[in-house]
Amino acid sequence: MIYSVIVDLSASEVDRIFDYKGEGYSVGTRVLVSFGKRPTEGYIIEEKDKTDYDENKLKEIIRPLDDFPAISADLLELGRFMRREYHLRWADVLRLFIPAEMRGNRVKLLSKQQVSLATQDSLDVILASLKPNATMQRDLVTYLYLNGATLAETINAEFGNSALRALKQKGIVVSQDIVVRRTPYKDLRVGNFERHTLLPAQQAAVEAVLSDKTGKFLLHGVTGSGKTEVYLTVIEKIVAQGKTCIMLVPEISLTPNMLRQLRARFGDSVALLHSGLSSGERFDEWTRLKNGEAKIAVGARSAVFAPLTDIGAIIIDEEHDGSYISDFNPRYNTVDVAQFRAEQNGALLLLGSATPSIQSYYKAKTGKLKLIELPERINKHPLPKVEIVDMALETRRGNRGIFSSVLKQRLAETLANGNQAMLFLNRRGYSSFMMCTKCGYVAKCEDCDITLTVHREDNRLKCHYCGKQYYLLDKCPKCNSSAFRQGKIGTQQVVELLHTLFPQVNVLRMDADTTQTKESHGKILEAFRNGEAQILVGTQMIAKGHDFPKVTLVGILDGDQSLYHEDYLATERTFQLITQVAGRSGRDKDVGTVVLQTYTPTHDCLQMAARQDYKGFYATEINIRQPSHFPPFSEILRILYTGEKEKDCIDQLTEQYAALTDLKSLYPNAFYYLDKMRCPLKRAEKKYRFQILMKLSVDSLPQILPLIYGICDGKKRNGVQIFAERNPQNLS
Ligand code: ADP
Ligand code: ZN
Ligand code: ZN
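Above: inputs. Below: predicted complex with adenosine-5'-diphosphate.
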């Protein structure tokens, strides 16, 4: 038999299929093959009778790497779809489908020795066969009699290994190897989640979803309207039909909360998949999904590739979230991938959000998604009252601090009432950058075109792009002046200010710096939930999803932050962010308050966000996008060129740009826009960055996209990497 194999080469830009000979392999199996001079890992993606090469010269597959096909036929087909849509290399796609550490054999199932009694005899009978003074052995036997099979390591720790050895020799105790599962968030307190009786609106939503097994739905429910309960009920019904489910949340920080609710209801049939797990945990969870032990996969975007068969539902919470669009290689759109998998499995697709993306809401308006609404909070609980504070006015009144007088007053009231507050800031670190006030020099990363951020906790300058660290500068390297200004405020400074304002109050901070270890998200949130602190300060990480009943005040310190990007998504993002953050307030009995600090208090977007007027916002935004041909009325395609040699990048880009210009003259209606330029982020990780930007008509995509990708596949220069990106979230 002939097998088509994708060789798993990491650095190479090669994207070719190689044929090998072999017998009895299944498609999707990982295999060892000889490639060049070295044995290399690869994936069988096809089986066939004939090859286009000289069959006698084909090499034999050396051996399989696992005793099962790691990648299912369904996922291979998904891989083909992703290659067509996103212009990805086979090897990059296939890696998405398996735990990273399976490559290079860096992770295995963990097996441990378990010991148990060898006989069914009663305890008295067994004890009678032992000497009266063999206390350890007698205790050990009694222990096993009462507790049943136990890990050898536990027994050794408790009774010493000589007792165990003696009992094994006598044939009273036997041992066997068992697979031990490494379980992420093992100690997560599941608690007793009361199962709510669905309210009529939730019930109607569940029924609507379940009435169409292959339907595609957009659940638009205001914050606190009980969407999670709808998801859980849908999952319950689907699992009862013997099918499997995928539940996606936008960020790792949100997984513990969802996991807790899923485990409370479905126990061990839930498996967690995300990049924050240890390699052993991820491998074990993946294995449990693969062999059917677990039926529900939950996680951030990569869980969309969960190795499940017979999927009945794919649910995407906070579907508008930017993290569902991968912005590094391999780049893909999770919602579209989920839709493909749903169609492939005859499953239903349920997207949920309080602030749907303009893209998805437009699909609902044009009948491509069925719209389901939950317009009210649970128990008609009022949405929080939003106070917009004009910070320019504050400054004129002499308050130059980061807290407006209104916010200070509301904070004091909230704390006095024994409630909790969340303060939200769009930045992290202590103060954003270091600048020479004499000559204007700004400290930047050597490898990236990125301003370095000051971190007070360890007195370092850090590049938030590549992670490189530098010592703080005491003199300007350009003009030698020691007049450095430290710009802007960060979460850490907010915490310090709070300590001076409210010395008695405990404050927690959650941002990228405080959440670098594996389970730190969960720990911070758990501590806040338990009331170990009264105030939580954080970046966008705290904006989404969390449900803290005691939070009655949310402060948005810099409401303008994201409004003034040149990006067409800026207003949409600002609206989503403010509505989401505001939604954290007043979720229980007390009415919530939101203080929104801004320098542009009359901005439409902020006003509508304050009223949580999604429909008004959608109407305004769609009217701007239509005449200017922005998505959903077009598709933005960026082709990114990166490489360490600037000239090679420019030459490569220039050639392909010329070909694209020719294509545009052949298909003038397909292009609304075509241009080439340096990326705003000119250099990153030692590589120069250039881009071609296109705005394409949605109708001509199926015809034009393969032609464009064909051009990208043309003659390549060494060392230049070319990536496609559809409707990118971030054009840096
Ligand atoms: P959303 O995801 O829409 O923001 P949640 O699902 O978090 O909202 O629900 C908000 C709160 O309402 C939660 O505390 C949840 O436990 C509670 N809740 C949900 N459904 C019901 C119900 N049917 N009856 C009573 N409380 C409910
Ligand atoms: Zn200077
Ligand atoms: Zn850098």
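The longest strand covers residues 671-684.
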